[in-house]
Structure formats: C-alpha cells, structure tokens
TrEMBL record:
<protein>
    <recommendedName>
        <fullName>Copper amine oxidase-like N-terminal domain-containing protein</fullName>
    </recommendedName>
</protein>
<dbReference type="InterPro" id="IPR012854">
    <property type="entry name" value="Cu_amine_oxidase-like_N"/>
</dbReference>
<feature type="domain" description="Copper amine oxidase-like N-terminal">
    <location>
        <begin position="20"/>
        <end position="124"/>
    </location>
</feature>
<dbReference type="InterPro" id="IPR036582">
    <property type="entry name" value="Mao_N_sf"/>
</dbReference>
<dbReference type="Pfam" id="PF07833">
    <property type="entry name" value="Cu_amine_oxidN1"/>
</dbReference>
Amino acid sequence: MTTKKIVITVGAATMAAGTETVTLDAPAYINAENYTMLPLRAIAEAFNATVNWDDATKTVTILSGQRIISMTIGSKTMYINGTPVAMNTAPEITSSRTFVPVRDLANSLGISNINWTEASGTVTLN
C-alpha cells in the first residue's frame, strides 16, 4: 500500500490526498453519535485499495494489500480477513455513499497515525 497523507475537513467538498486535491461525492460529517464519518470509497482509493459494493446485502468489501475488509450498513461488526472486529458505530449511507467512522476505517487499512484538529474540523491520516 502506498503511504499517502490524507487531509479531510468535515463539510468540505474536497480532500487532500498527497499532493492532489480530490473532489468528494459527499463531504465528511459528524453523525448523531458524535463520530466523524468519512466517505469510504474516496479514502480507500486514495490509499490504493479496491472497493466493491454488494447492493443486495448492503455490504462493502475493501481489498488492501493482503487485507480483505468487509462492512455492512447498520452493523457494528466489520471483518478483516474473516475475523470479526467491533466498530465504534455502524457504517451509514448518506447522499448515496457509504460512510464509516474515521478510526475504524483507518485501523482496518492499517493506518495508525490519525489526527483530529477540533478547531478546523480536520482529520489527517498517514
């Protein structure tokens, strides 16, 4: 997996991915449980992961290096290489896009450096 610094601001229409500016289909937001929710596909693809959606089961599968990550809308359990892992809050569909909690998404992709800047509402992953 290519290491890249991602900077995303709650409510913004774009994010920084390395030296590129990426337009988002829908902006990051804070959900009702006070978790920062990120657009799954945009973040995963910025880290060179492949994302597949199964509309019948409302399940998203992320292929990242040797990891196979599976998350289902409304479920607080994700699977990493078949092993169940508890999530802080369940993935949601907003503006026809899958959103997941920042920490759960980062951890599933093996990203350990997660910074939240309260004043600007900005998340940095690298």
